[in-house]
Design a protein that fits this description.
Elements lengths: L1 H15 L18 E2 L5 E6 L2 E7 L9 E6 L4 E8 L5 H5 L9 E23 L4 E19 L4 E15 L12 E2 L6 E4 L3 E6 L16 E4 L6 E7 L19 E7 L9 E9 L2 E9 L1 E5 L2 E6 L2 E9 L1
Length: about 325
């Protein structure tokens, strides 16, 4: 009798191991990098014959540090599939998918919350102590996600989908270093065809008198006095944009970054060195340890950023 039972148990084991069935009860893609289809909004992970699909049709991946919480629904779908062969991008992304491999089992998420924590990816110049934002990392986690397996449900209190990285083009910062000054407000600016770096400077820092050697005029950046603003525009920028009581509505500002208020002997310092130059004076403006910020994102200009030179006459 024992031999008969042993044979039956072994036979049931063989049936359960049929390659056509999804026998694993846990989904694990922790060590797999996320990828995105070029032709649609599907972000996916593949591992041999398994695929985890996140259709992010209703998701906006922002270019700034933030946290989003959205519900899993018919627009923001999560699906786990098992195939009878190796999965490739063509399997998941083509409008007409290939005939093979074939889906042999599927779990569909019926509820839960999508949590997306977005942070800036930066490269750092150690020599200048400056940084540049090169992309944004979107860390995706599913909370209380419920999968319908067809023959039951499976619930994960916390399911880490992982990181989805979107690279971005860095701000140009292609400035001439030749400063101009508005006659009434005394505002300084440097510009090119698509961007401007504007300094609402304390007028006493620009004085037609040479400064002693190694003794520049100094001040701290603040939100009201000595405010530094970077703007990136959508259209052609000319000098007509500046020195107005109110800025024109065109060209449209695409991005605006404001310098963080300075801290004495630590950060956000303006230094102006004035020397005689021909029949006038040359004012060299240096920005020291300045951090630019937009929302919750920021980057560093460096220990000694040369803002530029302004020529004045008596």
């Amino acid at each position: 009798m024992k031999r008969v039972l042993s044979v039956l148990v072994f036979a049931l084991f063989l049936i359960g191991c049929d390659d056509g069935n999804l026998i694993q009860e846990d989904i694990n893609f922790e060590d797999v990098a996320a990828q995105k289809c070029a032709s649609n909004t599907i972000i996916y992970k593949v591992k041999d014959s398994e695929a985890l699909l996140f259709d992010a049709t209703g998701i906006n991946f922002p270019a700034e540090t933030s946290t989003q919480k959205l519900e899993i629904n018919s627009t923001n779908r999560v699906i786990y599939r098992f195939y009878n062969g190796t999965v490739t991008a063509a399997t998941l992304c083509e409008t007409i998918p290939p005939a093979t491999p074939v889906v042999t089992d599927q779990w569909t998420a019926t509820g839960g919350t999508i949590v997306i924590n977005t942070t800036a990816q930066k490269t750092r110049n150690e020599t200048e102590n400056s940084s540049k934002i090169t992309g944004y990392n979107h860390n995706i986690t599913f909370k209380n996600i419920t999968f319908d397996k067809g023959n039951g449900i499976q619930v994960y209190e916390t399911f880490a989908f992982g990181d989805y990285i979107l690279n971005t083009t860095g701000l140009p910062f292609a400035f001439t270093k030749v400063l101009k000054q508005c006659p009434n407000s005394k505002q300084l600016y440097d510009k090119n065809s698509s961007e401007a770096l504007i300094l609402d400077i304390d007028p006493t820092l620009i004085t037609n008198e040479a400064t002693p050697i190694n003794t520049p005029r100094t001040a701290l950046i603040s939100d009201t006095k000595n405010k530094l603003t970077y703007r990136l525009f959508s259209g052609l920028l000319t000098d007509d944009y500046f020195c107005n009581t109110v800025y024109p509505s065109t060209p449209v500002v695409l991005e605006e970054w404001i310098a963080v208020a300075g801290v004495a002997n630590i950060s956000g310092r303006i230094e102006v060195t004035t020397t005689s130059f021909g029949n006038g004076f040359k004012h060299t403006v240096i920005l020291k340890n300045v951090k630019m910020k937009k929302g919750n994102s920021d980057f560093l200009l460096g220990d000694n950023y040369i803002y530029g030179e302004l020529l004045t006459t008596n």
